[in-house]
Amino acid sequence: MASERTNPEDMGRGVLYPELMATKITLTRHTPSPPVATFVDYYWIVAWDLRGKASHESKTLSHPSVHLVFEEPQATVYGIVRGPFVRRISGLGHVLGVKFHPGGFRPFFGHPVAELVDAVIPAVGVFDPEAVVKTQAAVLATRDDAEMVAAAEAFLLPRLPDPDPVAAEVAEMVARITGDPALVRVDEVAKLLGLSVRRLQRLFAEYVGASPKWVLRRARLHEAAERAQQGARIDWSALAADLGYSDQAHLTRDFTAAVGAPPAAYAKS
Fold this sequence. Notes:
single chain, 269 residues, alpha+beta, seven-stranded antiparallel sheet, 12 helices, globular
C-alpha cells in the first residue's frame, strides 16, 4: 500500500489555512488494498504534538464523502458537512480516518446517505461494536502509520459488502462534476450524464448524501480557496465568471458562508 506525506504546499484540496496547518499537524495519506479500494478512496492519519503549546483549531471544506474515524473518545462516522468542518486539537494525539468514495459508504450503511448529512454518529451503530472498539484501541495504541493502516484493513476486509455497480457509477459522476470547472448547472450535468434532473437528484440523495447542486458549489469553492492560497493577485470578478457565478457578489456570499471570511480577506490571511 502506497503512502504520501503532505507538505505545507500540499495539505490537500479543501484544507483551509494550509501553511498554518502544516506547522501544527502531520498529515499522511495511504492507499487501501485493491479489495478495499472499491469502496475507499484512501486512509488519512493526522498526528500532532502540541504539549506545552496553545491548542489549534483546524478548518476544512469537506468533500462529498463519508468518513469513518478512529479517535478519542469513540470511533465515529461523519456524514457530509455542508459548512466548514472545524476541529480543535491540543496536547498529544492522532486519529485515523477512512475516506470513502462518493457513494462508497452506501453499501455499508444500507440506508440513503442523505440521512447522514451534517451528522456524526457512533461507528458502533453501523458496524459490529466489538470489532469497532478493538480496532479503535489498536489504532490509538500506536503512532506507527503502517500499524494503524493494518488495523483499519483488518477491520474492513472481512466486512466488505458486495460491489454495488450504482455506487461505482455515482462515484464516476461526482468525479466528472468536480473535475470539470465548466460544469456549473445541474441541468448541464444531467444532460451530460444522460439522466433526468430528478433521477440525478435521487441518486445523489441515496448514494452521496448531498445534492448535485451542493457538489457543484463545493467544487467551485474548493477551486476558489485553492486560487486564494496561491498568493498571487486575483481578479475576483474574473474568477467568479470562470466558476460560473453570476457576479462577484454571489461568489463572495458563498465563500464567506462556507469559509467564514470573504475571499479577499482569506487570501490576505
